[in-house]
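Sample pair:
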Amino acid sequence: MQLQESGEMYLETILILSQKLDTVRSIDVVEYMNFSKPSVSRAVGLLKNGGFINVDEHGFITLTDVGREVAEKIYERHTVLTRLLVSIGVDEETAANDACRVEHVISDKTFNAIKAHTTGNA
């Protein structure tokens, strides 16, 4: 199943929340993303059906191995791109917002070149 940008954003959010909270529920995603409950419920259903997350009988959400792989890839892109933009003088908030847009469309080849350049491994 090919994920759209919104699916990647949900997975990234679940990853971030799982690092901050003992358990992640749909309501946590609603509050973090400031989305409606029906929108999150629909997305959770699609991600579950796609094999990206599991939801247990208590409503606790966990990433599957595939879901974690996608989430970590997107989160790494977000953090590297944000750091790059801040390093060239963009304020933190703008850098994070712009990185969030770019992280979903940038090619692996370009991202890997940026990552190598910013870590000094160019």
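DSSP finds six helices and two strands in the chain.
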